[in-house]
Amino acid sequence: MLFNEPHPLETRVLTKRMHEPGYNGTVEAYERYGGYKQFLKAVEMTPDDIIGEVKTSNLRGRGGAGFPTGMKWGFVPRQSSKPKYIVVNGDESEPGTCKDRVLIENDPHLLIEGCLIAARVVGAERGYVYIRGEYRYLIDIMERAIDEAYRAGWLGQNIKGTGINFDLRAHSGAGAYECGEESALLESLEGKRGNPRIRPPFPAVAGLYASPTVLNNVETFAAVPSILEMGGKAWADLGIEKAGGTKLTCLTGHFNKPGVYELTLGFPVEKMINEVGGGVRGGRKMKAFIPGGSSCPVLTGDEAWPLTMDYDSMAKAGSMLGSGGVILMDETTDMVKAALRIMHFYAHESCGWCIPCREGTAWLKKLLTRLDAGSGSARDIDLVGDLAKNMLGRTFCPLGDAAALPTMSIVKKFRHEFEAKLSRPVSVPVTSPDQLVSLG
Amino acid sequence: MTFSPDLEARFEKLVASYPEGRTRSAVIPMLMYAQDELGAVTPELVAEVAKRCKVPPIQVEEVIGYYSMLHRKPQGKYHVQVCTNISCLLVGGEELYHHASKKLGIGHKQTTADGIFSLEEVECMGACSWAPAVEIDYTFHHHVTPEKLDQLLDGLKKPQ
Asked: What residues in B contact A436, CB-CB < 8 Å?
């Protein structure tokens, strides 16, 4: 089911089928619209040719890190005697991100075909779709689709007489943001606590059960069939240089028309907000803009308006494209409260494995609670900035950075809002015992 | 322990889903599905999952405290999860949580005296573009207003 109206400025590549009238995502429907043909094409191609097309397409990881997919696949030692695995990261938990839901819910066979092509490349015979526990209904949808694919002969032994064997299963998470980080996800998939692993070795070499593993986001795998269909070059040309294709972009926060839309890489922010998203709620001014989930550094409205939605443009402006979870905050937004809510999340989700993250997020939450409640001091503002800075780059996984980056940018760019709260009496009534504890 | 035929079938499939000697992988999904049937992760369940996955019980115990959806105490018949993370916060998620708390007369991770509802202020659950969002058990509700939440909760409370 689609939860928002489509927009004419969308470029539908991954979402093209689901917008067809009556399309229900079953294997029959998927085949009727040309599904699984790209897997058969992949069987006729050499693994190197497939990787070549993916490299030409300039597809970059859609989970948030933006690592070139073709290169990642190329790192897998195909000659290794160990079994190879395909793992789909469907642990979508980055605040502001709800795009993988759209893909799994409406076109699960597209994801299966993407996995099959990756399996063909590296010679994997098993794969797992790791889906966050809160998405139980999507796990059910995925399981039904997998069952259908087995019945139709697209999974199992000697698939369609190609001699290729591939088994796929859906796997439930149980509530942990950290498991969206690839090495923590692998730990979780092995039945353990989701603590990150020291890298290298990277999952391509030693992933699931210490074996070579292709691990990508749902949207990344779902992009692969269309790359083979259109050819890497044509797919790349949809986007801009160094960032090919389209991105499912989640417009969230103060939009008139929030929703998930498939937009080409390099789409202008101004057009995205004013046309696709229907403008800022109530015709207000945009105060802040987060391009891709709450771990990205926050941009001011003025910084964001002239940018385009792609990796390099956002990096140049000091932020990241991330997962495509756009968070727009209008002029009425209390940035201290926003910083606190973001830190509340990271403090809750820190797995506790590394001290800078475990202690840093807890301290930052306390300081921000105090500042938000109006009982902080000017030194606290500097301390927030310093603490966040000291977490950067000092943790095993990016969660520490994810907590530090938005905080540092909010303190730097909206310092006046923190200062304005210093002299005031308590601006927010204390409503929960949690807050009292943190204040103490 | 014995479970419903559906759950037994699921367990059988789960254990067979991982390569030989890797049944530890089934621990977390097994706990999730069993918890739904039993209402909580009980000591007996820990022992049972350990036996079926061929792991020492400590390896089952250690994941329970880590994953936020696994719980040792039963929740209400309906578990109401209100998201107050940033995208929901911006469009009224916090007010919605306070409304639910007041209406049910319970706070975060508490259960009503009649055992019908439990409440949880949750982190992002992936409904950001259709916020504010509430998930009751495993059912998502989008663009939830206090009025809509009242209707939902009142509808559930009626004897079925």
From this structure: none
